[in-house]
Every structure is written in structure tokens, then in C-alpha cells.
Amino acid sequence: MSEGSWRSIANLGKRHKIARWAQLGFAALTWLGVVLLAILLLRVAKQGISWLDLQFLTNFPSRFPEKAGILSALAGTLWLIGLTGAISVPVGVAAAVYLEEFSRPGRLKTFIEINIANLAGVPSIVYGLLGLAVFVRGLALGRSVLAGALTMSLLILPVIIIASREAIKAVPQSLRQGAMALGATRWQTVRHHVIPSALPGMLTGVILALSRAIGETAPLIMIGALTYIAFTPNGPMDDFTALPIQIFNWTSRPQKDFHSLAAAGIILLLIVLLIMNAAAVYIRYRTQRTRR
Amino acid sequence: MNDTIDLRFAKRRRPGEEGIKSLLLLCALLSIFTTAGIIMVLGRETWGFFREVPVFSFLFGLNWTPLLEPRSYGVLPLLGGTTMIVVGSALIALPVGLGSAIFLSEYAGERTRSIVKPILEILAGVPTVVYGYFALTTVTPVLRSILPQTNIFNAASASVVVGIMILPMVASLCDDALRAVPTSLRQAGHALGATRLEVSTQVVVPGALSGVLASFVLAASRAFGETMAVTLAAGATPNLTANPLESIQTMTAYIVQVSLGDTPAGGVEYKTIFAVGSLLFVITLGMNILANRILKRYQEVYE
What is the largest CA-CA distance in chain B? Predict the structure, then answer.
């Protein structure tokens, strides 16, 4: 061993000193994330909270910041998430059930799995391009809520499938064997035992996937969701706007008052997300207690 | 005798059961259709684009002015803008993320973990448009007060927020990788007289190298495809520059810019967004595949 490394081994005090400083450094880096989140939230709250009133919730967008509201965006987001959930949840759960309960190991299964993993990494704006070409133009759905919901469904399907598979995997094998031993077919076993037992886990995953869809902006801009909409959608074929699009629009304007509106919109968006995440955490917590 | 009856019973055809199985299979196949759809849509429009613009001048051209005369379709300024954001955000997210992961897995107790982990999850769940707002209203003013020559729209500010955005991903993936290194290796290090820092940096991190590197590549791929924050903060001027204080345009921001306007289908402008989208898709897919390769190829298998 060289002289230098002998010296470094012998110099125990210095090494321990370095180690202590490093520990402080690592801790500081970790808490940096927490501090950044705090700054972000404080900043948004400070700028937006005074703009968040009843008028803001019940008015439509306007050129005049003091009159502008977010009603059409809020309604659009609720429509969008409702439809997206109605499309993506059954399909996603069905795909997960197939992969976990019905498929045999083989090329097809591997191919599907690789596809799902790769789709999960595709940038959301590419889904926007797909939606624009297939749903908006190809199927001539126009800039409707339905076109948006279909695009969003494709976007979050990988997340729903992956989460649902995890939930199905967690169902004890004995439950399936018990049902089969009593003569249930595979589908009966799945329907009456596996799915009910995996439901809380699936719900948690579904809620988290939908909350991702709520915050997505780029695909909606791609399919042409409009920023100025002075009505709330009445059906799936109506034009729409959504919370993140309205926030994007207000943020991109130079006037400060619009930035305050954006901040108020962000508070509303974060509240919606918080409610959904709280629901997911609550479901997880309840099932953990009942399982015990 | 009984055996044969049982067998026949088991083999009885159940049309309902088979129908349901096919339906479920169809749902699972949707992922393949989606991939095929993406490739076909991007491929078709990009093919049309390349019939009007030579591939070479797209990939290696130095000017991107598809919406203004004289039109020029060199994608390098957009690619350069995106690369700048990826490098800038990686400079922030990789060291901070790995440092946090080392702290979480090697130093922090269960209590600290139970506080920090959910906060990182929240950070990861904040919509990207919110980071765009944060960049424009907070990061950019701070930058401009330090360096007054900074443009209102600049790559540095966007890099900072994209860095914050991908930080939780790096931290959480690295944390998983570090925790998968068996305790016995750490104990061996300590038994040889190494300090905790030396064990962390010379035993644990090298032992989890495949996971750490894969997380870096995945994070870079996320930054590559990031859209809203860079559209809001980095600007809309395709600009082949190395100065992060100038306004630039990323590939994603260009796609957004075009789709915000009224671009008729079929025109060259319309096709440009698919050509740029194809490039984006190919590069991010390549990065994701690379991350998987790293994981598989260099994985240390611990029994």
C-alpha cells in the first residue's frame, strides 16, 4: 500500500470529522426538497389566497382580472376526470385481471408487459399528438371533452394497470384455491373473491392515477382544449377547458393580476389533488387496519 | 370411472367464461394498440414531412424558423434547447437526489423517513404547470436580481424547476437501489474500520451502481419530455446557444406553441410537430431502454 493511503487510514480523527460533516451535508440536501416545497406553497398562498373567493369560483374567465373566474375550468376538469375514470378504470382493471389471473407465461404476455412499461415512460405530449391525430381528427370528435378523456385514459392506463396488478398480486393464493376447490370457475373466483379483496389497493392506485390526469396540461393543449370558454360543458361532445390550462393561460400573461389569478387557480387545483390523495391514504389506512 | 366423469366436467366448454377471457385479453391488448397507434401516427405525418423537407437538413440544420419566412427546418436549435434543460436540471437533481437517497437509506431513522418520504411524494405529485408558475414568478426574479442581464424567459430558470421536479424521482429510485444492498456488506465495511461515509460512498453506492445510474437516465428522460414548465419559463425563441440566461425553445415547447395557434391539418407546420414529436419519442424511448439495459446488465445479484 502506498504511503498516502497508510496516512489516510492512520488519520482516524480527520476521517471521522469528514464523515460528520458529510452527514450534515446529506441531511441538508434531503431537507432542501422540503424547504423548496414550503417556499413553493407559501409563494402560491401569498399571491393567490386573497383572490380565492366565491366570485372566483362562480365567474367565467374574463379579460378583466377582477371579474375573472374559474367556473368553466373547474366544471371542465370534473367532466374530464369523470369520463376518464369511466373509460380507463374498467379497461385498466380488466387488463390487470387478464395479466394476473388468465394469461400464461409466454411471448404474448412478455410483449404486453414490455409495451405497458414503455408506455409508462412516453412523454405526455406524445399522447397529445396521438389524441390530436386519432380522436380529434381521425374519429372527428373535435375538441370535445370525450376526445380529451380518451387521450387522458390512454395516458394513465399504464399506471392503473401496474397499480391494479400489484393489488391483485397481494391477494393470498389460498383465497383462489378455496373458491376453486368449491367448484368456482376462474372468472367466478376472480369476480367474487379476487377483485373484492384487491379493491382497496386498486382504488388507491386508480385515485393516484386520476390525480395525475387532473394535473396534466400538455396533452389537453395538444388536442385543442380552449382557454376562453364561457360556459360549462353539458355533454361529452362539448368544448371544454380545464384547471391546468386556465392556470397556464393566466401564468403566461405578463400582467401581475393574472399571475394572482393563476395562484388562486393553483390553490384550487392543489385542494382538489389533496382531497383525492387524502382519500387514497384513508382507504389504504382502513384496509391495513381491517386486514390485521 | 369417477375419474373420467371428473375430467369431462373439467373440460366442459364454458362459452361465457371464454367470452369474458377474450374481453379481458382485448383490454390487455389495448397497450399494444396504443404503441402501434403512436408509431403509426408519428410515422405517417413524419413521412409526409420528410417528403417536403430532406432528412439531413432537418437533423443537422442550424436554423429553426418553420413559421416565418424564410422557412428553415433545422431541428438542432430545439434539440440544443432541450439538451440544455436536461443538463441543467440534471446538475441539480442528480447530486441532490443521490445525496438525499444516501441520507434516507444510510443515516435517517424510521421517523425521519416517514416524514421526508411523503413530502418527496407530494413534490412529485405537484402538476408541472405549477412548476412553470413557480419558475416565472419566483425563480426568474431571483435570478434577475443576482444577474441583471438575465432574460425574462431563460433556460436557467426552467432548468432549476425541472431539476426540482425530477428530484423526487431520483431520490426515491436511488433510495430503493441503496436499500437493496445487503447489510452484511455494510457490516464488513465497518468491521474493516471504515467510517459511515466511507461505507456509503465506497461500498453501498458502488454496490447499487446499476440502480443509481438507471435512475439518472430515467430522470433525464423525464426532463427531456417535460413540457409545461419549459414552455412557460424557457421562452419561445429557437436559439442555438450555450448561455443559460438567454431565451431558448425546447422541442416540447415548440409543439405547444404550434398547437396553441390555429394550424390547419395537412400543412407543413402541422407536420413539423409530428416530426419533432417523433424525435422526442425516439430519444426518450431510447433512454428508457438504456435504463433497463443498465439495470439488467450491471445488476449485482445479492442472495
Answer: 93
Yes or no: say if B227 and B128 are a contact pair by the CB < 8 Å rule.
yes
Q: Helices B268-297 and B209-225, interaxial angle, to 10°?
A: 170
Kind and range of the H or E element at B64?
A: strand B64-65
What count of CB pairs under 8 Å joins A to B? 240
- Residue ranges per structural domain of chain A: 3-50, 56-291
Minimal C-alpha gap between A185 and chain B (Å): 8
Homologous superfamily in CATH for domain A56-291: MetI-like (1.10.3720.10)
B75-297: CATH number: 1.10.3720.10
For every one of its 292 residues, what pLDDT tens digit does chain A have, with 9 covering 90 and above? 444 455 556 688 888 888 889 899 999 998 888 898 888 889 888 887 887 787 777 777 777 777 777 888 888 899 999 999 999 999 999 999 999 998 888 898 899 998 998 898 899 999 999 998 898 888 888 788 899 999 999 999 999 999 999 999 999 999 999 999 998 888 999 999 999 999 888 988 898 899 889 988 889 988 877 667 777 777 777 777 888 988 898 888 888 888 888 888 999 999 989 888 888 888 877 876 665 4
pTM of the model: 0.88
For testing contact with chain A, the best of B6, B9, B30 (most A CBs within 10 A) = B30
For residue A127, give the chain B residue with the closest CA.
B38
Contact at CB, B281 and A185, closer than 8 angstroms: no
Q: Which residue has the cell 392503473?
A: A160
Asked if A18 and B164 come within 8 Å (Cβ–Cβ), the reply is no
